[in-house]
Model the fold of this input.
Amino acid sequence: MEGITFFVWRGSSGISLLQLLELVGSARVLESQWIIRYADSAGEPQAAHELNEFSDSEIRFPGSTLQRLVSKGVQLIDGELSAYEADKDNAWLILRAVDSTHWDVESQDVALLARLKEAIPDAEPLPK
Done:
């Protein structure tokens, strides 16, 4: 998989998980199944707790659940979200929050990575 990395913060505002998922595209988010690992979440307490409950369980949950939680303002401080197509063993997308300072994005979808690079001009290739 190819990948990019970029700073979360842009002056006084940052790129939230919600904004990152909007760049991925609602249809892709909803049609994917998700696994979250190493989660440290913040935001609306109940939604953050629910997202943290999925962490490291290796249970795939639907994109609609992720979208619902994120729409309540949940932010991933640290952790890794992996997106899977139905009945596939390998993730097509990995979103990694690094200490609330960086996002690392890996994907098999080169068109998505190109879109992200266009929307986030200071994005750099992930070291291999």
